[in-house]
Design brief:
Length: 195
């Protein structure tokens, strides 16, 4: 994400330099007042009001903070306040954040109280592999952030990269045959968007 305060400062410095050059050309002076340029370059970035900075839209007319907040409205139990990591990783891997979160809510029960797979193994999406979680086929992650990242990365490389980018397109591969999984995930998506 672009640091808008620094961009503003650089823009001001460039404008100042352009203006100084214009004045110099008009007066035929051969020296530039470097003291004024240094003052602009040393301008305190933190002195710029946050209200003056326009945040970048990252997803469906929302800024990153708005998206994180929207996702947090649907997160409870063990996943409370993890909207930022869901948003960050979904945007990084170009995965629909609503779809990713909807799958997690459906698979883990974290809408009310998370499954033992989440609580004990930080596995938010039923990802299989090693190291094993309690001797089973599901993978153990050392932190929730690691588990969320691995889940979204799994969606990217094992589904999105093959054109499976909706619940209905994923259903057969993800579930092995359920005919109701996609509609349940879609219901969660609608719920997340409307909170």
């Amino acid at each position: 994400m672009i640091n808008l305060k620094k961009l503003l400062i650089v823009s001001l410095a460039v404008l100042f330099l352009l203006n100084t050059t214009r004045v110099q050309a008009q007066t035929n002076e051969e020296t530039v007042d470097t003291l004024d340029i240094v003052k602009v370059m040393e301008f305190d970035v933190n002195a710029v009001s946050d209200e003056a900075v326009v945040e970048e839209i990252v997803y469906e007319d929302m800024t990153f903070n708005e998206l994180s907040s929207q996702l947090n409205k649907s997160l409870s139990s063990t996943l409370t306040n993890k909207g930022e990591i869901f948003a960050k990783r979904a945007l990084e891997y170009e995965v629909d954040p609503y779809l990713a979160l909807a799958i997690v809510l459906h698979e883990t029960g974290c809408k009310w109280g998370c499954s033992s797979l989440v609580v004990n193994c930080n596995n938010v999406g039923g990802v299989k592999g090693s190291p094993s979680c309690g001797g089973g086929s599901y993978r153990y992650y050392s932190s929730l952030d690691e588990g969320i990242t691995a889940f979204i990365r799994n969606l990217k490389y094992n589904y999105y990269d093959y054109g499976l980018n909706t619940a209905y397109k994923m259903q057969r591969k993800y579930t092995g045959g359920s005919t109701t999984w996609a509609s349940k995930v879609e219901n969660y998506i609608a719920e997340i968007k409307n909170k």
